[in-house]
Amino acid sequence: MSVTTDILTVDRLRAYYQMNYFGIEREVRAVEDVTMRVKANEVYGIAGESSSGKTSLIKVLAAAIRPPLRVLEGSVTYRFNGNPLDITRAAEEEIEAVRWRHLSYIMQGSMSVLNPVRRIGRIFEDFAFRPMGLKRDAFRAAVEAHLARLHLEPGVMNSYPHELSGGMRQRVTIALATVCRPEFIIADEPTTALDVVVQKDVLAMIREVQQALGSSVVFVTHDMAVHASIADRLAIVYAGRIVEEAPTRTIFTAARHPYTRHLVASLPRIGDTSPKPSLEGRPPSLAEPPPGCRFHPRCPIAIERCRKEVPILEEWPGEHRVACFRAHEAIPAGEILHLKRGSLQ
Amino acid sequence: MSTYLVFALKRFLQFLAVVFTGVSASFFIAHLSPISPVETIIGRVSGQSAFSPEAVESLRQTLTELFGLNVPLHEQYFNFLRRFLVGDLGPSLLAFPTPAMKLVGLALPWTVGLLTLSTILTWLVGNILGGLAGYYQNSRLLKAFGIVAIGVQPIPYYIVAFLMVIIFGFLWPVLPVSGGFAMNVRPSWSPEFVGSILLHGILPAASLVIVGLGTWFLGMRALVSNIVTEDYVTYAELAGVRRERIVSSYVIRNAMVPQLTALAMSLGGIFSGTIITEQVFSYPGLGTLLVRAVNAGDSAVVLAVSCVAVIAVATAILLIDLIHPLLDPRIRVE
What we know:
The complex is a heterodimer. By secondary structure, chain A is an alpha/beta fold. Chain A contains 11 helices and 12 strands. Chain A has an 8-stranded mixed beta sheet with strand order 6-7-8-3-9-10-12-11, with helices on both faces. A 4-stranded antiparallel beta sheet of chain A has the order 2-1-4-5, with helices on one face. The N and C termini of chain A lie far apart (43 Å). The C terminus of chain A is likely disordered. Chain B has a domain of 181 residues: MetI-like fold. The longest helix of chain B is centred in the last third of the chain and has 38 residues. The termini of chain B are close together. The model of chain B has no long low-confidence stretch (mean pLDDT 86). At the A-B interface, helix 3 of A face helix 9 and helix 10 of B.
């Protein structure tokens, strides 16, 4: 893949929460040295457990950087219509100009993202009327056509959010995020609150819209099963860093990082009745991350070097990147998945 | 819209029930008073010249019949209800043959004018400023206003009223501190008279506004600083929706609903607040009339003022309740 098809380039991004309580400085290192690219027309999955910093990462990607979150280093460059725009340095007006028209966002929790006292039609006007730049009648027709694509009747325009079911509301938010035909869509756990049946429909819908518009989607969830069904490429985030990134199939079949291997091994498979090993310990506090590799306190194959040095994200063949000193060694699954108690700190 | 009409009708029936209960309670409380209007009048009349005991007795009988006190209490109550429906609450004691309702009618416009103006002004300005302060949390001007509001808000009405009198009546005498209008102006619709009314209204209104403003400002600021963290606000900001639109239709609009409820609940308190304010400024409203009537044992006027107050507050709350479903679509009106 040549560089020109990249729609988003994130380079050595560091973003911390910096707080000051009565003179006591506190720092939460939520995003640490993240480098990634998202190509045109692909679904890029970001997986990680709660408090791994994935929400902070997409806050930066969505240009929603508010204190105490601050970008300390690095760049986040979008390339819409060939014009590079680094949102960590751009003026507010430049960012406002790309919002919704080029860069849109599907937020977590469809129950609460719609203004409860405003009709759906008015919300569409607020969000999309200016970016689309159509006359009122044409705008209404375009919105109705787009709603029909997501199997919603034009009647929902006159409804209040509380009058719709959870699934309909999620479809409305997807319609809202895609009505301007944006090139880049950030989806933050869009299916988490839904039951599996609705989840399946919503995933299919996001896929459908993405393919129809040719947009790129950054899809964030902790649910590996969802990633398996939607993502083209997948990044695994642990404690604010990307530890592994590869095409989805590679992650599920040939992962190199012990954390990823653990994550994949914990997924249930049909016919497999063996007990699933769980990883000991808890993810580290991002306020005081451990030195060296941030995974080493829980890593079953950690060596002395892991405690001191930070492994860089190394390129592997087949669009594969891994951040582990022992990725080159052929370590059998048994050694990684069966933890010896007391062998770790 | 027909469900709304059903709701409005039900709410109106509730209103009638509230008025009935309130008015009945006022009647019984007024009759618990140890001051007998008949004896008070006799005392006043016989104190001026000597009367024969027979004359006093016949006067007592006439007055007892006139006030309708010659029948048992429950019959008095039904008579009262019947007369209440046609707006007749008997003669005042203070200004004897004048009907109590006429005195109330004279005082009512002053209080209603003062209250409506100051309440609406306070509520609107307090909520808008509080809303802006909650949204633009870094604005120095609004922060300073918040500090002043915290300082002023717990001061009781009457202290503020006295401060106003001291400052603008004595230290820097620029505004009239008593009465509803200047003595030398004839009541009419002339600009001179209206101007005089407005000038006399400034201080009483200001003392109500200053205290109320802080309360609404602080309440609204707290509400809004919660609402700005709601997902729908963050989402609208991420979508690049215009700031003015977010502040008005997303933030303040959502905070209006609980603030309207709070307004309905505070109306009774505001009414009692004006009684004191009117007293301080000798304002010719219901409050002044009520205090004079209580001091003179004029139970007819006390009852009339209470009834009118019950109706006025209940009506205001009814109106607010009728607006409520129009403001928040989630309120079911079935």
